[in-house]
């Protein structure tokens, strides 16, 4: 399966399949033949779980640099180590970089590629469900001690090779986390699709075919939006549904404690409560959606671990916050997002409603 992404700065394809790494990477042969060196960045967990398959199927010679697992690779230290590796390997602007891992490896590698010698081409090889989102669209970043994803660039890959065989070793918690972004893609685009997800016995244990279908649908939503608005001037903001409140929970907990998608799911329910005030969605639907999330094992305890005042500190750090007014993505109906400024006092009211709902 192939999903084209056509941003202003770059056109590329996401190729999606199962057990097809060799063939999929080979489809970029014309570009890779011209490269003087291929470098693979991955993380320790991914390399331990999938390194053998990767080595057996990657169709070219390559050098590998193994980063610490997960979010720990998105630091200045690892950024520096990755650049040092490229220099030591005598990489030139004709070298090619691969990000083999989840969103964390993808974000770090993308930023390394964007800045090494002012930019070398890179290909994303995502290994998580969440990365159906993060690997597409060209946002790259590392974290600063004062804020997540604060240092980065918009830099599009040459392509995305998504082999769902990698998902087989993904821990269930990470499957759940990534699926929250699939659910978000359904919520901002298609009521029928969301209904199907909500009716499924489980959204965590899809068959290979069903998973591919869901990922493709998610990638199509993301591809369409970033093709229209690469740098988040307009419709790309809709992808932030659930992320304003979600990021506050994620940050308050300390990154990694609450997984990104777990926090997004919390944020999605919060956004439904807020949407009730401005659109056609009602409390009955919000409750149904909460039950759907609980049934699939999404944890909500984190909400009660922090007061609104604690969360507020992080809400105000949101890149989209201005003068104490937050920009929330809300839903008129499922599939119809819009952006609305919301004052902190109202955020607090809805936060109280949320806590009541969870009680
Ligand atoms: P991740 O990359 O941290 O991976 C989650 C965990 O699973 C890690 O411990 C990782 O080592 C491990 N792992 C990954 N693939 C595996 C596999 N196939 N088998 C076994 N273990 C595996 O997390 P993620 O959820 O993929 O991504 C989260 C990151 O993505 C965050 O840093 C977030 O900021 C970023 N993000 C970026 C964008 C974007 O547009 N650039 C969008 C959303 C999220
Ligand atoms: Zn997200």
Q: Quick one: CATH superfamily of the largest domain?
A: Dehydroquinate synthase-like - alpha domain
Whole-number tally of structural domains:
2
Unique ligands: nicotinamide-adenine-dinucleotide, zinc ion
What is the averaged pLDDT score?
Answer: 95
DSSP strand content: 15-25%
* Gap between N and C termini: 44 Å
Number of strands: 11
Named at the architecture level, the CATH assignment of the largest domain is Up-down Bundle
Q: What's the CATH topology name of the largest domain? A: Dehydroquinate synthase-like, alpha domain
User: Largest sheet, if any?
Assistant: 7 strands, mixed
How large is the count of helical segments? 15
User: Order of strands side by side in the largest beta sheet?
Assistant: 1-2-9-6-5-3-4
Q: C-alpha Rg, in Å?
A: 20 Å
Please bin the fraction of helical residues. Answer: 40-55%
Globular, elongated, flat, extended or rod-shaped: what is the shape? globular
Given this structure, which CATH class of the largest domain is correct?
Mainly Alpha
Overview of the structural elements:
With 359 residues, the protein is an alpha/beta fold. It has two domains: 2-169, 3-Layer(aba) Sandwich (Rossmann fold), CATH 3.40.50.1970; 172-358, Up-down Bundle (Dehydroquinate synthase-like, alpha domain), CATH 1.20.1090. It is built from 15 helices and eleven strands. It has helices at residues 21-26, 29-33, 44-57, 76-88, 103-115, 131-134, 172-189, 191-199, 208-228, 243-253, 260-276, 283-295, 302-305, 308-315, 344-358, and strands at residues 2-6, 11-17, 38-43, 63-67, 96-101, 122-126, 139-144, 147-154, 159-163, 325-333, 336-343. The protein has a seven-stranded mixed beta sheet with strand order 1-2-9-6-5-3-4. It has a two-stranded antiparallel ribbon with strand order 7-8. It has a two-stranded antiparallel sheet with strand order 10-11. The longest helix is centred in the middle third of the chain and has 21 residues, at 208-228. The chain is globular and about 60 Å long. The N and C termini lie far apart (44 Å). The model has no long low-confidence stretch (mean pLDDT 95). It binds nicotinamide-adenine-dinucleotide and zinc ion (ZN).
């Amino acid at each position: 399966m192939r999903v084209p992404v056509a941003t202003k700065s770059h056109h590329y394809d996401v190729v999606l399949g199962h057990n097809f790494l060799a063939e999929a990477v080979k489809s970029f042969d014309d570009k890779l033949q011209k490269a003087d060196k291929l470098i693979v960045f991955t993380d320790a967990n991914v390399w331990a779980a999938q390194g053998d398959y990767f080595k057996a199927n990657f169709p070219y010679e390559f050098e590998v640099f193994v980063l610490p697992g997960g979010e720990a690779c998105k630091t200045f230290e690892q950024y520096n180590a990755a650049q040092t590796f490229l220099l030591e390997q005598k990489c030139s602007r004709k070298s090619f970089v691969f990000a083999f891992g989840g969103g964390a490896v993808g974000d770090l590698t993308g930023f390394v590629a964007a800045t090494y010698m002012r930019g070398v081409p890179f290909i994303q090889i995502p290994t998580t469900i969440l990365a159906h989102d993060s690997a597409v669209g060209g946002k790259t970043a590392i974290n600063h001690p004062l804020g997540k994803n604060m240092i980065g660039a918009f830099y599009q890959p040459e392509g995305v090779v998504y082999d769902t065989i990698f998902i087989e070793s993904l821990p269930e918690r990470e499957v759940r986390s990534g699926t929250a972004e699939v659910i978000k893609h359904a919520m901002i685009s298609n009521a029928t699709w969301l209904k199907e997800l909500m009716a499924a016995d489980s959204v965590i244990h899809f068959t290979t075919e069903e998973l591919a279908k869901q990922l493709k649908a998610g990638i199509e939503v993301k591809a369409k939006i970033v093709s229209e608005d690469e740098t988040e001037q307009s419709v790309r903001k809709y992808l932030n549904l659930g992320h304003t409140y979600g990021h506050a929970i994620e940050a308050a907990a300390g990154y990694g404690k609450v997984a990104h998608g777990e926090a997004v799911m919390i944020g999605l329910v919060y956004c439904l409560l807020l949407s009730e005030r401005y659109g056609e969605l009602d409390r009955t639907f919000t409750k149904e959606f909460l039950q759907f999330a609980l049934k699939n094992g999404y944890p909500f305890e984190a909400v009660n671990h922090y007061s609104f005042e604690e969360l507020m500190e992080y809400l105000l750090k949101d890149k989209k916050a201005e003068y104490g007014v937050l920009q929330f993505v809300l839903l008129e109906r499922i599939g119809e997002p819009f952006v609305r400024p919301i004052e902190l006092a109202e955020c607090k009211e809805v936060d109280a409603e949320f806590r009541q709902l969870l009680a």
